[in-house]
Amino acid sequence: MPSPAIDIALDVSCAAENPLTGIGYATLYQLRALFTRDDPELRFHLFAAGARGGRATLEKEIGDARSLSYVPYARLAKYYAWTTLNWPPIEWFTGPARIAHNFCHQAPATSGAIKLVTVHDLSMFRHPETHTPRMVHVQQTLLRHTAKYADHIVAVSEHCKSELIELLRIPPDRIHVIHNGVNTGEFDVALDARRLNELRQAHRIEDDYIIHLGTIEPRKNLVRLCEAYRQLRASKSGIPKLVIVGATGWGSAPSIAAIESLGSSVVRPGYLSRADAVLLLRGARVCVYPSLYEGFGLPVLEAMAARTPVITSNASALPEVAGDTAVYVDPLDSASIAGAIAGVLEDPAAAASRVAAGRARAETFSWAASAEKLASLYKTLAN
User: Fold this and answer.
1) Is 374 part of any domain?
2) Exposed end of the chain (fewer CB within 10 Å): N or C?
3) SS3 of 200, please?
4) Do residues 23 and 89 share a domain?
């Protein structure tokens, strides 16, 4: 007789946010790939505590065939209950489980299940100035609690693993590196030229443009990007417009002031749907992502998949993702950023070579491979 399936409780609260940003999207894509495997050895039970409408988001994105226990308006309550009381156990909501996996930083309370937690970055320790004081307190509390109570941790990069070892003194044998991925096929469908033209017309974007994707917040380093862009336009003619795509986050005032100081040469369309953001990424001359710190750097990988040249920081996990396919800059030096942009714009042959290498590298980071490694980890831990 076949062995009974392993019951796994998944806390997917981070995928019930609105709007979805990096961690939420990463969780959704990993869930889709995990469920696509349709593995008879694994049986999943989903739990989420989130905002009103979060259940609809999850059911739309991953289908309603999976069991989902959804508690609205309860994310903060879950945070306080699990970090201070280690209660209530997630099994109250999901039923019995051998493993309980939280996809974003918090060790779940359990009544016996193995506790597994995915950690995406430690920016709240390395760069607390780029978060609100409240967020620093919440995230540091979560991660210290996870360091103490989680049985095992998934790190999204080798860099993230090294940070967990150094900053939280977590033994290496408790940490398992499973990279995020990308669906390269999403960037291979026939380009919707009509929709791309509509976007360009709606936001006054010319055919040639430079793009940045990411929430407008201090960690994304947009003040220095804007200063680099100002230097570039002052020294050279014919520089394409800069398009900054993303929701407005905390501490955005300096970034927005820097953007607005550049007038009509910078376009800020705000938060776009996934499909529209992908279209603009595919149509860009170059993607510039000079972030101060990333635990992975999904926009860089997606630009590589989109066959768009990448300029990014020589810091944190970004070189691990892009390898030798990107142009690297010192994120603290606006002249370094300006010089890199000029280099890519002025040498299309070198840019094309990097594009080909970037696409080939992106194909080694698939969500299917990520899900395969995660499923293997579940089985190893359960046995």
Assistant:
1) yes
2) N
3) helix
4) yes
Residue written as tokens 């930083």? 105
Distance CA 150, CA 146 (A): 5
**CATH number of the structural domain spanning residue 162:** 3.40.50.2000
CB 62 within 8 A of CB 28: yes
Name the DSSP letter for residue 323.
T
| Statement to judge: residues 66 and 190 lie in one domain | no
CB of 250 closer than 8 Å to CB of 219: no
Same-domain status, 229 and 335? yes
Q: Quote the number of domains for the chain.
A: 2
Give one word for 30, left, alpha or beta, with left for phi > 0 and alpha for psi -120 to 50.
alpha
The token pair at 211 is 């793009």
CA atoms within 13 A on the CB side of 219: 23
Residue 62, pLDDT score? 79
3-state helix, strand, coil in the chain (%, to 5): 50, 20, 30
Q: Which long-range contacts (CB under 8 A, 24 or more apart) does 80-89 make?
A: 81/109, 82/106, 82/107, 82/108, 82/109, 82/145, 83/141, 83/142, 83/145, 85/109, 86/149, 89/113
Domain that holds residue 10: 6-181+366-382
- What is the mean pLDDT for each group of 10 consecutive residues in the chain (383 residues)? 86 85 91 92 92 77 72 80 92 96 96 98 97 94 97 99 98 98 92 90 92 97 99 96 95 97 96 94 97 98 98 98 98 98 96 97 97 98 95
Q: Write down the pTM of the prediction.
A: 0.94
153 and 217 housed in the same domain: no
Identify whether residues 243 and 145 lie together within a single domain.
Answer: no
Domain assignment present for residue 1? The answer is: no
